[in-house]
């Protein structure tokens, strides 16, 4: 099995950091949501997403190490801890997912430029995953936009959020 180039290793380690930061950001969102009244579904959603991002990071760590690299476990900055509204939290989530997608696309570009087809193939899972994450974040934002300040709408949003992922 061919080894990872120095460039590819560094880029993949950069993605490890990004996935770790995503996990922390969603963990912080979950903690914030948990102390808001009536956001049990949203709280679960954020905590579940934090776990997912952590699993994306682990998948990268194993890949880097299996391909002769060394996955570096990064130091993390404190994520944003509080939000003025649920709408703002979901706007941040969407912005974050767009940044992750851009980063994944950059990795794919490097893999193709280096003719590293094993890494290119590995990254396709992330490409599909990001399409799904973006869609979900966009839908959440669209729904919150429609709801505005309507409390009954927020109640329904909170109730339905855990099922939205499978639509």
Automatic annotation (TrEMBL):
GO cellular component, one term: cytosol
Residue span(s) of domain Ferritin-like diiron: 2-148
Record-linked Gene3D superfamilies: 1.20.1260.10
Main localization, broad class: cytoplasm
UniProt keyword annotations, A-Z: Cytoplasm, Iron, Iron storage, Metal-binding, Oxidoreductase
Pfam families the record matches: Ferritin (PF00210)
BP term (GO), one: iron ion transport
InterPro entries named among the record's database cross-references: Ferritin, Ferritin-like, Ferritin-like_diiron, Ferritin-like_SF, Ferritin_DPS_dom, Ferritin_prok
Broad class of enzyme this protein falls into: oxidoreductase
Compartments (UniProt record): Cytoplasm
MF terms (GO), sorted A to Z: ferric iron binding; ferrous iron binding; ferroxidase activity; identical protein binding
Catalytic activity: 4 Fe(2+) + O2 + 6 H2O = 4 iron(III) oxide-hydroxide + 12 H(+)
Residues binding Fe cation: 19, 53, 56, 97, 130
EC number per UniProt: 1.16.3.2
Superkingdom, natural source: Bacteria
PANTHER family: BACTERIAL NON-HEME FERRITIN (PTHR11431:SF127), FERRITIN (PTHR11431)
Family, per entry: Belongs to the ferritin family. Prokaryotic subfamily.
Reported function: Iron-storage protein. May alleviate iron toxicity in the presence of oxygen.
UniProt protein name: Ferritin
Gene source species: Sediminibacterium ginsengisoli
